[in-house]
Amino acid sequence: VDDSDRSFYEDLYDLEARLPPVLLRDVSKADADADTTAKGGTTAATAAFDVWLDNLRTCERRDTADELSQKWFEEGLNTKQNRRKLARFILNPRDKARGTVPPEWLRVVANIAPWAKDLVDALSSQALKRLDEALAKNETDRVGEQMVCLRLLAQMCKFRLVPPGAVMDFFKRLMDGGHLANDHWAEMASQLCLSCGRYLLYKPDTATRMDNLVERMWKLKNSATQALTASADVSLEDAYFHMKPRKTRFGVKGGEQDRPIMERLIRKFIFQDIYIMDEDEGLRLARKLPWEHHVVEEDGTVKIGEKCNEEDSEVYKWMKE
User: What residues does the MIF4G domain cover (predicted)?
Assistant: First the structure.
């Protein structure tokens, strides 16, 4: 998790420093009824919540989420009824088929959570209940709803609204009973890893257990007794290497700066310069490569320039141009 992501999930909006204590409370039914009467009936109170909800639906920025969190209390929306409506809204978004839950929605929930415990409990309990029931009945036809619940739990975990153990317990259940052989559950396991796998894997208090679970997933994927389809195999492999990037003798796969200087020169020549150079110029450069220094690998691959790593060499100067 990079610094910007960590800040988004951990540096929440300080409502106590911005609002008077009288606003940071659960609006009781009596207070809500009195406020409704003062505003001219139920329609006005409902309209205020509907406007707030419409703004949340289009929320795509951190600062907008924080503003909505503040308005939740300024407009007296923190009622039990509104919290129930908000829970239903998040669990059943209009674009449920896409299976997405904007993280900004959960930031709003995290901001108001100290004064809306029942909202957090409703979201986490309903999401886990739906996932457990689907897994027990092997329901694979309600993909969108299940993805919403899964990503919701992952986001809540990163906001520390759900115990990491609850997410890892479900991850374990996905691997029990041969569920990974099914494309649907393999994709669910993959999405869980992509959504919060790295967070759990590199968090000190969850690292050991998550690492064991990830390695178990990898062993199951490669097990001869686990008959995986090609799509399930690729999905799980992508998830594994998302959390544990491949290592090479030059560092993380794809790390250009970790390659030997001569290899970087040759790659630059092959993939860039050869397309813009004059043919004769390209041939002259190729002939100047230190062919006398080469190593023949066991597979027949010829590597040249193994001794040309000095930064003051002509090769290095050419690379810097």
Answer: 130-227
